[in-house]
Write a structure and sequence with these properties.
Order of helices and strands: HHEEEEEHHEEEEHEEEEEEEEEEEE
Helix content: 25-40%
Distance between the termini: 119 Å
Number of helices: 5
Structural class: alpha+beta
Radius of gyration: 55 Å
Number of strands: 21
Shape: elongated
Strand content: 25-35%
Largest sheet: 6 strands, mixed
Amino acid sequence: MNRRDRQQHTGQPAASATPCRHHRRGPSLWLRLSRGLGSRALRLVSVGRLALAGMAMAGLAGCNPHADTATPPAAPIPVSVMPLKAHELWVHETLPGRVAAVRSAEVRAQVGGIVKQRLFTEGSDVTAGERLFQIDPAAFQAEVDIASAALQRAEATLKHARLQAERLGSLQRSEAVSRQRYDDAAALRDQAAADVAQARATLARRKLDLHFASVEAPIAGHIDQALVSEGALVSPTDTTPLARIQQIDQVYVDVRQSASKLETLRQQVGSATSTLDVDILGSDGKPLGMRGRMLFSGIAVDAGTGDVLLRVLVDNPQRRLLPGLYVQARIPIAHYSAALSVPQQAVTRTAGQASVWVVDAQGQVKPVPVELGELVERRYRVVSGLSAGQRVVIEGIERLSPDAQVATRRWQPAASGEPLSAVAR
């Protein structure tokens, strides 16, 4: 009986064919894997339940009205402050300038001739009237001798004409000679007198030429190098001078300023003092320790640039300033008798609005909008927004917020560097 017949006869399914060894082990392996994964899943679920229970307990504890919810107060923020005080303030502007000698003269020959000798030391000081060059005087001495002889002849002629006129005068009074003859003698006498005067003038001119053969210093001062040497032929029409003399114990510093600022400068200075002091700086901007005073005489406006030439007179006893040297001048352009100023680092800007942090009587800070003026030596002049006596925060600004509590200490400024020029803000 086949498998189907046995199934029909017994009512049970026929047994399947005998599986291989691997098929017999298959069901038990899958069972073991399922059981292992199930136990791990149970452990994970247990851990998750415990975590949720812990969170729930913490939430319940947080909802407990009897739990302590108070937090310790924040410590005051340490800051450095500076009390505002009114003080006198000068606003300066630094302008470039050139040094010029107070007096400068060119030594020139007034007569022509050969230079025989140089009588000064180049680069030395000379006095007015000191002999500097000697031009060959032989020709001029000869001219003096000729003029002297002409004078002697004229004087002899005058003497004879006077005697002749006196003799004819006595004869004319006795009518021994005619009136016409006497008049002729008198005319010859007067003509001889004029010849004498002309001869004397010619002699004086020749002596002056002889004197000019010795070239003298026109002014006292410092003489540069000689521009001609011995043996050179010079004349009054030469374009090159023999030497140059400059007075540099006092010098001018010429600077240019806009004409529109000149009247404001005069008004500001005129209200404070009668003189205007100007500090002289080197070409690198460092102070030279020299000060001059502004001169307003001889100012002319340049039609091309609209600038005026301002002249500063500076005492130069050590001769540190030489003509032609480039320097800078710190010129005061404004004066405030009671100004308030804050260090540059104390100012913060938000959307273009400047403000500072101010500490009130309770030790709390708040930002105060301010209007700023010029920047002078790294300090802004306060135009409006602050008053004297207020305490302004200088250091520690980056940690501040409105109404924050602060612990203040007095601000100690660092050693200041070179002063800065005033810049309008």
